[in-house]
Amino acid sequence: xxxxxxxxxxxxxxxxxxxxxxxxxxxxxxxxxxxxxxxxxxxxxxxxxxxxxxxxxxxxxxxxxxxxxxxxxxxxxxxxxxxxxxxxxxxxxxxxxxxxxxxxxxxxxxxxxxxxxxxxxxxxxxxxxxxxxxxxxxxxxxxxxxxxxxxxxxxxxxxxxxxxxxxxxxxxxxxxxxxxxxxxxxxxxxxxxxxxxxxxxxxxxxxxxxxxxxxxxxxxxxxxxxxxxxxxxxxxxxxxxxxxxxxxxxxxxxxxxxxxxxxxxxxxxxxxxxxxxxxxxxxxxxxxxxxxxxxxxxxxxxxxxxxxxxxxxxxxxxxxxxxxxxxxxxxxxxxxxxxxxxxxxxxxxxxxxxxxxxxxxxxxxxxxxxxxxxxxxxxxxxxxxxxxxxxxxxxxxxxxxxxxxxxxxxxxxxxxxxxxxxxxxxxxxxxxxxxxxxxxxxxxxxxxxxxxxxxxxxxxxxxxxxxxxxxxxxxxxxxxxxxxxxxxxxxxxxxxxxxxxxxxxxxxxxxxxxxxxxxxxxxxxxxxxxxxxxxxxxxxxxxxxxxxxxxxxxxxxxxxxxxxxxxxxxxxxxxxxxxxxxx
Length: 583
Known about the structure:
- This protein is mainly beta.
- The chain is 10% helix and 42% strand.
């Protein structure tokens, strides 16, 4: 009897040992957990495993504050990597030392998200979910298993959108191939597959989400799958890549964050990160009827450096190219390629974009300042010194932001986060000189679908051609958080500029006067709360009021003054609820 009990104790101890928690966790982009760990990184209570390029794979976090004075959620189950088996032998050669000699797994908690938009679509950075007017919901869950350098992740998303009709501008890009699709549901202007409404009925959508297979050796890694990418330091509107659109199949390889040391001397020069990927983009069902152009090729490259002699600073360069699928794969994947094909007899054409990023984290005071400058096209005579000396603002876009950690109360474990971000993607003013110019950072005449995948923007969730300002304060406490935010944006001022170019000033109601007050704008204010019912069960809820000014870019006409100076308004409300459970 005694021996039987001993055997049971030994067996149970072995099982618990095999399923013990490992030191770090990997988190989904823009999830509650990733946002919290990023907040802890402001004061050095955890370290970022990446510099500029992150996916679920790179979003690895280890909390270093052992006394838990900073980690206010220390007793919560945020989802941990669980170790099944680890090789104990110390006899490893150069090759095996570069592998993670263990087997582990992680279960990504089931999350159910719902929102209701009263009068207009609202929502971004939500993957395959389209938060249209009416009821929207998404369910996601998954798991990851890894061992000896290999890893397999599976975390799809199933979503539903009621997709009710709402007031928007029906203009679209005119073409005989559209058969009413783009003219009815497409973008407000130009060649672009950024759909305003996905048809005239409700629909379901399945997205593979963060699903991939990968092999890693030391910091070198290569993988194939659909994991979402977040590129650059922006929090709200990433300039070149975010998780706003549905995911797409891609092959990537490169080096994760890697320390540079001079052999023999032991000099530490800093950290670098480099990644190259090629992806397969798809057109939505609401663009055109030409099946030969349904897929585009997306080539991206990023390299970042964090110098040892300036702690906390990270500098990065990113370049992406959208081209037609199957056209000059190796050429466009090459980071140094700088052409802009016009002669389509040689190649089918491409749309290139690049950005420079800078991020400086001051851990002693919990402060982070970041910025990004992007460029879309070369000047008239190409990439020349005198051209950029003459007019350096050609197609320039930018993002600037700040994050500050605040100690509210150590005894009650209350910590605050203050965030502000300013984005600008308006067209440069030299395009006013180009008669009838239809320029926008988000699309290109040779790439008819623009900077999109399956009908949604790949990068900035707000879209391109406008500007935005966002201010938020979050109070973290042991039971969750409370967040207040206020923001405004112009989704696409380029449309108004395009309408006003070459206006006839001799007419009474020339375009320049008619569209002077026609800019579309969004003002929104709201709150978002998270409450841990149990240490592994959380409920998130929020409310938002959205005032839309000139929803169709058309001002009201005043018959008395005979001027277009009135404004049209639309009032939208959003309610949202999310429930998440971690095993």
